[in-house]
Write a structure and sequence with these properties.
Blueprint (H helix, E strand, L loop, with lengths): L3 H23 L5 H27 L9 H17 L3 H25 L5 H22 L3
Helix pairs in contact: 1-2, 1-3, 1-4, 1-5, 2-5, 4-5
Length: 142
């Protein structure tokens, strides 16, 4: 079972990876409406990331980001796939895959969460809804 701090750490790391993932794909995105959709997603991740960071600090915790090795690995994988096929459809598919993995982890963490702080629950729920909305938004670019 996860407590409030563990759930906040998860949301912080998930939004950190989301921000990085969007930034990596933006480098290859050429279609303007696709770029705008990615920028909107990045802004949503930024808001969740900042709110989570603030809540962790209010609790006297230091936000624990994703390891640099994990970030580099994800960036390299994005680059390899994007260089092989930089089409908007392929980039949207990559974003859908990333958000689907995120949704799966978020649902698992929500089921394991036993905290009572509604603000923490709300942030975790917002992350899940953001991932769902991102998938729906990317589907039109397939």
């Amino acid at each position: 079972m996860l407590n409030e701090t563990e759930m906040l750490d998860y949301v912080y790391q998930a939004t950190d990876m989301g921000r990085d993932g969007v930034a990596s794909v933006l480098k290859y995105a050429r279609q303007e409406d696709f770029r705008q959709a990615l920028k909107q997603q990045q802004a949503e991740y930024d808001k969740l990331w900042a709110a989570t960071s603030k809540m962790l600090r209010e609790r006297g915790e230091r936000p624990k980001g994703v390891s640099p090795v994990a970030k580099l690995s994800a960036q390299m994988m994005t680059s390899i796939k994007a260089i092989a096929d930089p089409s908007t459809s392929k980039l949207a598919e990559m974003m859908i895959q990333g958000n689907t993995m995120g949704m799966t982890k978020s649902l698992k963490h929500l089921h394991d969460y036993n905290g009572r702080d509604e603000r923490v629950q709300d942030l975790a729920d917002k992350l899940l809804k953001t991932e769902q909305a991102n998938i729906e938004q990317m589907q039109k670019f397939l």
